[in-house]
Amino acid sequence: MTDPIRPTDNQAHALARRLMTQARFAALGTVDTKGQPLVTRVAFGLCPEGQPISLISSLSQHSQVLRSNPACSLLVGEPGDKGDPLTHPRLSLVGAAKFVDNQTRAHQVLAAHYLQSHPKAKLYIGFTDFFFVRFTPDAGYLNAGFGKAFHLKAADLVATANPDQPG
Known about the structure:
The protein is an alpha+beta fold. The chain has helices spanning 10-22, 61-68, 105-117, and strands at residues 25-31, 37-43, 45-46, 52-57, 71-76, 90-100, 130-143, 149-153.
């Protein structure tokens, strides 16, 4: 059997960045201290530097799991209105999460930026139990549709202002 993974090219980089730039939510995969997996839906955005972020409550199960084990994955990309959902592009990000203290200047900067793409978060962004989590991807796996799979490196996964710009 030949390797199903294609050489990663500028089109793959651009598609991965576009998926990240357009995403407003993601599936978050975590593993707790007992080795139990957990997948939840979280809000998804990008920080000013282009890294994935989410605003989550410390009361949530996934927040508690991430505090004990920051290793995680995110899945972005939604099926289109027509056709087989498995033919639509999606991107899996694998890496680690780091909480941003909500009493810091970094949190204020992220909040101002985040509200531009998530205006409804204004209702709860100031609650004391809400924190930003910054995700640092180590690798990405892009499924660009049937027969179009790519591995991406960490450097390929920083979304730029222009998602079509080559990496």
